[in-house]
């Protein structure tokens, strides 16, 4: 076996790979940058103290007597040095601010990581503390509001999946619906059964606006007995959730996806449900006093026994809805759409109330949701 000039073994037919002796160590880029800054600073100071005063004096007062010339040069030099010191101070303040901002971002990252880890604690108190710690981080860092909302949504979903629709109780008749509305919500509110999840929902309901649109994905969750009065849940995805016996007084649910949601016995007094999707929703004996349901899709929804005094149903889609036992006398129904499958309260005159009766082949207000394909 052949050997190279350095004594290395070389296989026959293979080129000899000679090692290149190490050259001088290259100067680090940061060192070169620092040297350039120092040299530039020296040149700038020299220009300000030597060249600039004489040039400015020759432009401004070329005929200055020799006796006064030295004093004028010193005055100009002092003024320029003061200005240069001010610029240096501003530059130093900028870099100090940058350093503080980097340090602040690092602290926020550490706080965020610690809070997320605490969400997995076995102690409910620690989990609740982590939820409110994330709320404080969201207040301090607007850029983290979106990720924090996603973390809290995941936390709520992971710890409380709703019972599938196929396994929920099926009412025998109207009276049984009232009974289920009373007992299905549970004997205790969510704040007692699962205080950490109630805390997370409270934080999500009062979250500050994120720099970019952030949809709350809270579908298929068991939130029976949740307390969310005045909560901001606009555009939230809550399809197939169970919010029976929930307290949503004055909540903002505009454009929310509430397809197949259970709101049996829920309180939605003065809630804003404008353009919400409530298809096939269960609202047995729900309180909808003063609620805004205008332009809402209630096709196939069951409002048996619901209290709707003062509610607004303008332009709502009520095709296939069940309104048995409701009192629609004090509601606004102008422009609402019904059809032959809509079940009205006994003695109700749909035409006199300003309803539009659609034909059976009239298309729905909105296209079929993909949720209906994956119940």
From TrEMBL:
Keyword Nucleotide-binding recorded: no
Record's keyword annotation contains Ribonucleoprotein: no
Coiled-coil residues: none
Pfam families, per the entry: Pentapeptide
Transmembrane feature ranges: 31-56, 76-97
InterPro entries, A to Z: 5peptide_repeat, Pentapeptide-BTB/POZ_domain
Keywords, in A-Z order: Membrane, Transmembrane, Transmembrane helix
Disordered: region residues: 1-23
Official protein name in the record: Pentapeptide repeat-containing protein
Native organism: Streptomyces spiralis
């Amino acid at each position: 076996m052949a050997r190279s000039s350095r004594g290395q073994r070389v296989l026959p037919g293979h080129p000899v790979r000679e090692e290149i002796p190490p050259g001088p160590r290259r100067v680090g880029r940061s060192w070169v940058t620092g040297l350039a800054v120092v040299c530039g600073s020296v040149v700038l100071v020299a220009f300000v103290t030597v060249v600039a005063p004489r040039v400015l004096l020759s432009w401004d007062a070329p005929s200055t007597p020799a006796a006064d010339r030295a004093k004028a040069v010193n005055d100009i030099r002092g003024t320029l040095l003061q200005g240069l010191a001010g610029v240096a101070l501003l530059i130093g303040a900028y870099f100090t601010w940058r350093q503080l901002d980097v340090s602040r971002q690092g602290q926020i990252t550490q706080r965020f990581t610690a809070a997320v880890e605490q969400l997995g604690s076995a102690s409910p108190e620690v989990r609740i503390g982590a939820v409110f710690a994330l709320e404080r981080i969201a207040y301090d860092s607007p850029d983290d509001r979106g990720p924090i909302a996603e973390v809290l949504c995941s936390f709520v979903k992971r710890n409380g999946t709703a019972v599938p629709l196929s396994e929920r109780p099926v009412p025998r008749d109207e009276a049984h619906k009232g009974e289920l509305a009373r007992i299905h919500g549970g004997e205790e509110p969510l704040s007692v059964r699962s205080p950490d999840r109630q805390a997370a929902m409270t934080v999500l309901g009062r979250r500050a606006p994120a720099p970019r649109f952030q949809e709350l994905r809270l579908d298929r969750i068991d939130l029976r007995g949740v307390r969310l009065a005045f909560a901001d849940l606009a555009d939230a995805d809550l399809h197939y959730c169970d919010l029976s016996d929930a307290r949503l007084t004055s909540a903002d649910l505009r454009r929310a996806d509430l397809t197949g949601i259970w709101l049996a016995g829920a309180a939605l007094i003065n809630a804003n449900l404008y353009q919400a999707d409530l298809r096939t929703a269960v609202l047995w004996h729900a309180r909808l006093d003063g609620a805004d349901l205008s332009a809402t899709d209630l096709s196939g929804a069951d409002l048996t026994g619901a209290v709707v005094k003062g509610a607004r149903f303008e332009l709502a889609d009520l095709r296939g809805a069940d309104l048995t036992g409701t009192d629609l006398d004090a509601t606004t129904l102008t422009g609402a759409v019904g059809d032959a499958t809509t079940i009205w309260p006994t003695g109700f005159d749909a035409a006199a109330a300003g309803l539009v009766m659609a034909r059976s082949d009239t298309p729905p207000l909105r296209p079929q949701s993909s949720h209906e394909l994956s119940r």
